[in-house]
Amino acid sequence: MARIVAGIGSSHVPSIGRAFDLGKQQDPAWKPLFDGYLPVKDWLENEIRADAVVFVYNDHGSDFGLDRCPTFALGTADTYPLADEGFGQRPLPAVKGDPALSWHLANALIADEFDLTVCQEMAVDHGLLVPLPLLWSYQPDWSIKVVPLVVNVIQHPLPTARRCLRLGHALRRAIESYPADMRVAVVGTGGMSHQLHGERFGHLNEAFDQRWLDLIESDPETLAAMTHQEIMDAAGAEAVELIMWLIMRGAMAPKVRRLHRNYYAPMTSGMGLITFVDAADPA
Amino acid sequence: MTDPSPNPRDWGIAGTYVFDGDRSRAGYAVNKLCMSLTRPENRERFRQDEEAYMAGFALSEAQKQAIRDRDWLELVRLGGNIYYMIKISATVGAGLYAMGAQMRGQSLEAFLATRQNKGAV
Hints:
The complex is a heterodimer of chains A (about 280) and B (about 120). Chain A has one domain (about 5-205, about 225-280): LigB-like (Protocatechuate 4,5-dioxygenase, Chain B, 3-Layer(aba) Sandwich), CATH 3.40.830. Helix content of chain A is about 35%, strand content about 20%. Chain A has helices spanning about 15-20, 30-50, 100-110, 125-130, 130-135, 160-175, 205-220, 220-225, 230-235, 245-250, and strands at about 5-10, 50-55, 70-75, 80, 95, 115-120, 145-150, 185-190, 255-265, 270-280. In chain A, the strands form 2 sheets. An 8-stranded mixed β-sheet of chain A has the order 6-3-7-2-8-1-10-9. Chain A has a two-stranded antiparallel sheet with strand order 4-5. In chain A, a hairpin with a 6-residue loop joins strand 9 (about 255-265) and strand 10 (about 270-280). The longest helix of chain A is centred in the N-terminal third of the chain and has 18 residues, at about 30-50. Chain A is globular. Chain A starts with a strand and ends in a 5-residue tail after the last strand. Chain B is mostly helical and about 120 residues long. Chain B has one domain: Protocatechuate 4,5-dioxygenase, Chain A. Helix content of chain B is about 60%, strand content about 0%. Chain B contains 9 helices and no strands. Chain B has helices at about 20-25, 30-35, 40-50, 50-55, 60-70, 70-75, 80-90, 95-105, 110. In chain B, helix 2 crosses helix 7. The termini of chain B are far apart. The chains are: A alpha/beta (about 280), B mainly alpha (about 120). Chains A and B meet through helix 9 of A and helix 2, helix 7 and helix 8 of B.
């Protein structure tokens, strides 16, 4: 049977992708961010050795428009082309899918009353493409197969934080009912504090972000009880996308062991990174 | 548990324009134009003749004027969503931080001076 071997929360700030492509990993302004990912990538490749990852992110008007805006959508493709977000495509290979696992998850989640939109063709944007190469190798090709899970966190009404946590619980049941002997990681992306529009552009709240990093580990129920308004008021309007981390956290056991934690907020977004295994897993 | 109704508008958060159904409806054509700029040939057409390009979308005159003026705050007020609007800035070479500084009513330099490490752009 398949099992969940790691849970990861990560920001997906687009400037990280630009800095990555420009080779700024050693630039003093960027090193505190990139250095946080190095031990995580090493751990994933050498210890966790996942076969596939369920990657929770949101599209930013790159492939899903406002004509049809699914609350939750699941990719079931063989490969996912890279979206052009207005700057051209990034120099990365197309993302490799796992249609058999995707369709199993679609069947299991919808039977479990989480009615996702099933997508056989979709392009992936920075929500996925910023963290993915920081976590897994892409040369000569991706070392991991990806099941993209897309959440609407842009056009209100958004799913509640608690709905996201519950989707995570269902995702765990769905993964654990997959008959193949497979190691699956779950990544939740977004945030942390930031606001990118209005007179309040640039709003940051490091204390909020640090508390979120504490509670995503120890007390996700408290985070799940937060309203969108509370998150947006404290951490900036666009910080509401942090609710996607709760899908990852819901997929982990109630008690987890944290292995890595990093935080850096140089410009307009809190850039967080945290990793977990189930507390019952062998060290 | 549930969020309050969008009245009062923007949930009492200052300097914020909650992208709810009313705004998405008002800004539908703006955001549709923006999303069309994910295609390189459309970016080229926009750069060649912005007026002709805008004519292909059901924009209000006020929305057209906000695009002409690169008045980002006004465009937000008229229903533009920042994740979509960034496609215009990508097309014409404005940057997110310049857009943000303008929405704050500051110069880019003054805005960057408020950041922890402005080298990380």
